[in-house]
Amino acid sequence: MSLKKDIVWRVAIIYLGMLLVGVLIFGRILYLQLVQGNKYSTLSAEQSLRDFTIQPNRGDILSADGRLLSSSVPYYEIHLDLNSNALDRNLFKRKLDSLSSCLSDLFKDKPAWQYKKELLDAYRKKSRYYLLKRNVTYRQMKELKKFPVLRRGRYKGGLIIIQTNKRILPQRELAARTIGYVTNDDRSNVVGIEGAYNRFLKGQTGVRLMQRLSGNVWMPLKDANEVEPKDGYDVVTTIDIDIQDVAENSLKQQLIRNNADHGVVILMEVKTGNIKAIANLERDKDGNYRELYNYAIGESIEPGSTFKLPVLVAGLEDGAFSINDTVDTDHGRIKFYDKVIKDTRPGGYGKITVKRVLEVSSNVGMSKLIMDHYADHPRDLIDRLYSMRLNKKLGIEIKGEGTPMIHYPGDKYWSGISLAMISHGYEVRMTPLQILAFYNAIANNGVMVKPRFVKELKYHGRVVKKYGTVVLNPSICSKETLEKAHEMLEGVVENGTAKNLRNKVYKIAGKTGTAQIANEKYGYHVNHKISYVASFVGYFPADDPKYSCIVVVSAPSNSVYYGNLVAGPVFREVADKVYASSLDMQRDYLAYAGHSHDAPYSKNGLLSEMKYVFNKLGISYLEDKKTEDKWGRASSRDSVVAVDPLKVTGFLVPNVRGMGLEDALFLLESDGLQVIADGWGTVKKQSVAPGTKAQPGMTIRLEMSLK
Question: Residue 476: CB partners within 8 Å, gap ≥ 6?
Fold first, then answer.
């Protein structure tokens, strides 16, 4: 074969081979396009397009007057794309020193040289998602946007800002356990109002179509199927922050004074059932008192002497006795089978009336009275107690309500001494809130109402739902029995165990309680010691009840454990605060209106300036030396001025009432608010309620004392 033919033959083979490969490639293209085109188009879209969930803004929890109790505050994660195509490399290197210095000055966590080193390392690694800082505040984020390089934005400056929301309690520990929380972990805990109203607070999520770009960056696309998120509702509670503050502080001081384990205070409006204050304080491992568990709602305990009233009401309603009948308490001791029941007074009270039995809280008198009339038919007493709804939960929305328990004749735990024990509050279990609901019904002309923690829901300031008063029992007993119950409870304060709560301004009606705490394993004696629960429950003003209140202090250990001495003072302090701030309750207000105090009047303002003036003028003043607050409010107390801390939180509108215009302007304008002042002198009113979220540019109008 000639050389020419050999070359032609080889070229032909190569040509045919290339033609065959081309035909195969073309065939494969046709196959992919026509046969599997839809499959790969869908797969490509799935990898580059994705629906992202858009989280709504969670609603706020507000006090009765609109101040924030719980809110979501925006925090930011700052990342840098140091491999962005639009990032000017020369500019970055030239401005790195000044950028590092700015970051160090803003966050104050690292020196500038360390920021420079870390940024340079990330730049050399071509990091596309370098984490610069977590938990950056809104103010810090706004400053960050002005820094060298970063001021050029997302693509030219590599700045990536991711917003996260953090739930905070602006009023710190106030009612923290009742406000509660919701966790998103595997256990998904729902606690307090946050948990009970989570379906309203959380809002509705939205959906947005996003496309993935190079560097795993996702960009939103316009899509007709996009669903916008809907913000959650704001929950307006019944809680009064000012009264809550008094309740917690008073309870805390009493717990410290008596070295107690934990304590509870609940204040409720008689007619509506609105909970105006609810405090639960427990000693932690460091010896500090904090809100760790909602004892008011969740702890079922033997109430002791506060249960004597329901038992007497049952007997009066059955006609078993009247309040003027007498019972012989002997020498203060009586034995039923192997159980000895004693009175606290040595030698007993002798022969006394039923009314006096409650006034002096005679255990012997109660047990003899009930055993004499119900020993042969105990079911009548228990059925009567059940008819008053004392064996049922209140059905409140907050989870964790303790189950009440009153033994019934014939059940597993009923014995020959059960009736005598129940008569003075043992072999019975109820929560503080359940006991309060009964006493509130006595104050409310026999109508038992459900305790209410939330009064309405709002959406962007508009009321969308109101919660009314729920009646649990329209009449727990007859009108005649109610009148006798009122008389007995007033007698407890006027002539009985709670005489230390008596005052000349308004009347209190209520009942003291002192009960031994039973240990499940060892009974009432542990290491030869007995622990007690001291309590006081009642209502005021006694002649026209507006509020009911219960105070429970568990395990006081300084040798004082009686309800009138341990729980009573807390009740009195809360009642005094409520009475002093409610002019409609002060029938003699006009008679006292003209009386002046010896201590001079002072405006609210900077604590340091107030104390400087008082010291210069030789004016006596009382202050909380442990407070770290810079601002204070002054009030006259007899011959001295009381200086209390005024809490100021950066992102909330402060309370400037009672301040001079200069201090008010400084505080409000520091939060970016626009201030309009009508007149001069002292701030009387402010158009935006204290505790409202401070929005930069918001206008607030101040009404001054002089015009």
Answer: 313, 388, 389, 438, 441, 442, 446, 447, 448
Instruction: State the Cα–Cα distance between residues 648 and 674, nearest whole angstrom.
Output: 18
Phi-psi category of 382—alpha, beta or left, where left has phi over 0 and alpha has psi -120 to 50?
A: alpha
pTM over 0.85: no
3-state DSSP call for residue 259? coil
Q: Which of 578, 581, 512, 491 shows the shortest CA–CA distance to 541?
A: 578
Bridge partners (DSSP) listed for residue 652: 693
Tokens of 475: 């009449």
Residue count (the chain): 707
DSSP strands (E only) in 67-111:
68-80
Q: Using CA atoms, how far apart are residues 683 and 604, in angstroms rounded to an integer?
A: 10
For 647-696, what is each residue's pLDDT tens digit?
Answer: 777 778 888 888 888 888 888 888 888 888 888 788 888 888 888 888 88
H-state helical runs in 567-671: 568-581, 589-593, 607-617, 661-670
412 vs 284, 409, 418, CA distance in Å? Answer: 37, 9, 12
Q: Under a CB-based contact definition with an 8 Å cutoff, are residues 481 and 322 in contact?
A: no
Closest CA to 87 of 133, 118, 119: 119
The SS3 assignment for 182 reads: strand
pLDDT tens profile 130-146: 899 888 888 888 899 99
- Torsions phi, psi of 238, nearest 5? -95, 0
| Domains of the chain, start order | 53-234 (3.90.1310.10), 241-585 (3.40.710.10), 605-706 (3.30.10.20)
Rounded CA Rg of the chain = 36
**pLDDT, tens digit (0-9, with 9 covering 90-100), for 581-608:** 876 676 544 444 444 445 677 788 888 8
At 459 the three-state DSSP class reads: strand
Output the CA angle 326-303-314, nearest 5 degrees: 45
